[in-house]
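U., I forgot to send this yesterday:
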Amino acid sequence: MKCVSVFSKGTLLVLFTILMSNKLSARVYSTCPYPQNEYGIGYGFYPTEQLAITYLEAIGFGVLKPLTDVDFQSSKFIGPISVNYKHFFKERLAVGFSALYSNAKLKFTDSNETLATSHLNTISILPRFDFYYIRNPKFAMYGSLAAGGMVMLSSGKEIPLVERAGASFAFQVTPLAFRFGRDVGLVVELGIGSHGLAEVGFTYRPFNRPWMH
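Result:
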């Protein structure tokens, strides 16, 4: 009988420990009912650099061409290609950064003869702040603000108005963006700045907990 009594006390102690650990785990889970980190890649269309080059091509040299026969062409523009990271410190608020790369091939011609060609590479780093209007496991609608700097490096023949190297302010204002999906999601962002007038990409939210499924 004594052994049974000891066994019963031990069993009760084990059950009590398991119960308390479950309650503690549930309490810890409830403090963070959403993924805290998000990683993404994207491709943008018509960033501010491309808009400036397009303006220069259409307006600046368009006025001079009838007088000088010198024309400016941006024959190819790649990017921006972006790598993004977010950390959620609240359910609807996140901070992070974006790293971007773009490349433009610039060409001057004179009566259809190429005078000079240059490749303009742009690298930008932008700290960002995201705020979510709607955030569900499979759908989110949000906006973001970002500001930082860009470095511009030119290679090839030196041409007018294009420096070999330089730095300037970079920004992105995104009033409306959408994310579709759970762990891996499709992202569409609409705004203006270094990411472009529109950006499409994918994001990944690792280490989702059971409450998100």
